[in-house]
Structure formats: structure tokens, C-alpha cells
Amino acid sequence: MTIAGAGRMLRGGETTSVALTEAAIARMEATEARLNAFITPTPDDALASARQADADLAAGNDHGPLHGIPIAIKDLCATRGIRTTAGSAVLGDWVPDFDATVVRKLHEGGAVSLGKLNLHEFAFGTTSMNEHYGAVHNPWDLSRHPGGSSGGSGAAVAAGVVFGAIGTDTGGSIRMPAALCGTAGLMPTYGVVSRKGVTALSWSLDHIGPLTRTAEDSALFLKTIAGYDAGDPGSLHTPGGWDPTSEI
Length: 248
Hints:
Blueprint: H1 3-11, H2 17-35, E1 38-41, H3 43-58, E2 70-74, H4 101-108, E3 112-117, H5 151-158, E4 164-169, H6 175-181, E5 184-185, E6 207-212, H7 215-225
Parallel strand pairs: 2-3, 2-4
Antiparallel strand pairs: 1-3, 4-6, 5-6
Helix pairs in contact: 2-3, 5-6
């Protein structure tokens, strides 16, 4: 199932966000011991978000294409009240009191996060072999790595745990896991998605983008997270309200 397909089912009353989320949690529990895709899973928070998404939709409040859809977040992005490690023991106890802009946009868009995904330490590597939180394994062949640094993102999407995930890309960290795990990966134009609240590897080269099951789903994901942010000096400023995703 895809984001587009699940969205149609949600809006048509054929399923609920709670049902989708319960299935995602069950899949995570069935695969996590082998994949090690997550550093901090948050199933209880996910179910609470799913219940809210269903209530909002029933009240006629549709927050966009990711409304009620189970996703997950690379553990490079700050999340209020949930530890954010950047894949390092140095930040192992850091619990931010704020959300990264991209995380805030996901919440505002009604997405349901299953938690924080494993990665190469500080996003500085291409294998997602992490000495602190364990190596991520490729769901197609557990003896192989999923690429990096967004390996947890690629593995979780490819294994059917979540419909999409946040990744970051400085030198291939979305594109390599997408290639090795057989998912769609999109590194947007620099500045289209805010980097505020995302641990930097190279400020002038970092991009934030989605890994999903299809190109269409990546477009829907991007529409939720794109937009100018005054808190990111490199954010793409487009006077006149131009929407960089309007023709996707």
C-alpha cells in the first residue's frame, strides 16, 4: 500500500489511522530484532496521534496528504520530549524541548510518527553501521547493509514498517539507501526543506527529504515538509507565494 492509496482509503472510510498504525507497529515489532532500523520507537505516541488523526478527519479537518499516515523520522531531527541522538553516544541523553521545523510540519500535516530511526553516527558514513546503537540491516538480505547515512529510513520503508520516512542527504545519504533498499528517495533542491533543528554535517550541503515506496508518495511527502523558514538562513525564499511543489 502507498501513501496515496492509504489516503484514499482513509478519506473513503475504508480504514482508519488507528488500524494503519496498529499494523505498522505490528510490522515493526516483527522485524526490528533483525533490521535494527529504530533507535527510539514510540508506539504509544503513535497510537495517540492516530486517534487524534481519526477524530480530526471525522470532524472534517483534513490536514493534508500525510494525514493519519504512519511515518518515521531520522534521529538527526530534534523532537520535543523524545531523545535525539544523531546516532552518537555523545547525545544519547539529549531530549530536546523543541521540534525541528520538518518535524513540526509533519505534526501539523497530521502524520503519525512511529519513532526515531537509526543512522550512521552524525550522518558521517554510507553504511549505517553504528557502534553505539548497532548496525542497520538491509531487509532484502540481512547480511548486507542498507546504505547510509539514512539506513534506518531506507530499511523501515523497504520492510513495509512505515509508508515514508525522513532522511537527510549531504553526499548521497538519501539516494544510497533508496538505491540499496529499493525505495524511492528524493533529495530536494537546496533550501526547499528547512534544516532548522537538524544536526548539521555540512551546513552548505545538507538537504532534508523523504524516502517512500513510490515517486508519487515522495511528492506527497515533500508537499507536507517543504516551505520557507526564516529560522534557516539557507531556506529558499520565493516572494509571491511560489510553491516549488505545485507542479509535481
